[in-house]
Design a protein that fits this description.
About 50% of the residues lie in helices and about 10% in strands. With about 90 residues, it is mainly α. Strands 1-2 form a two-stranded parallel ribbon. β1, α2 and β2 form a beta-alpha-beta unit.
Length: about 90
């Protein structure tokens, strides 16, 4: 179930992020906001949405920035961005 995976990923990010000092940014595959039940009951969606919002709230309370990214399958734009920021600056 994709929603369960998303919640597990964000919960793990929360667990890991609190171990670091300074500015922490979490980055996940997909949107931050949930947009309705897909294949499950509305009650399950509401329960999972509350869990999801609680995790996001805990991240915010700890001043941890969270971001989501959506792109087409097999896109490499994030990997390319990370490669570019590692290139030494020219003087």
């Amino acid at each position: 179930m994709a929603l369960g995976r998303d919640i597990s990923e964000r919960r793990k990010l929360l667990d890991l992020a609190v171990e670091y000092s300074g500015q922490v940014i979490t980055f996940t595959d997909g949107p931050i906001e949930l947009w309705g039940a897909k294949g499950g009951s509305e009650a399950d969606f509401r329960r999972n949405r509350e869990i999801h919002l609680s995790i996001l709230s805990q991240l915010a309370t700890k001043n941890i920035l969270t971001a989501g990214y959506i792109d087409k399958p097999a896109a490499d734009l994030v990997a390319r961005l990370l490669e570019i920021i590692q290139v030494p600056k020219m003087k």
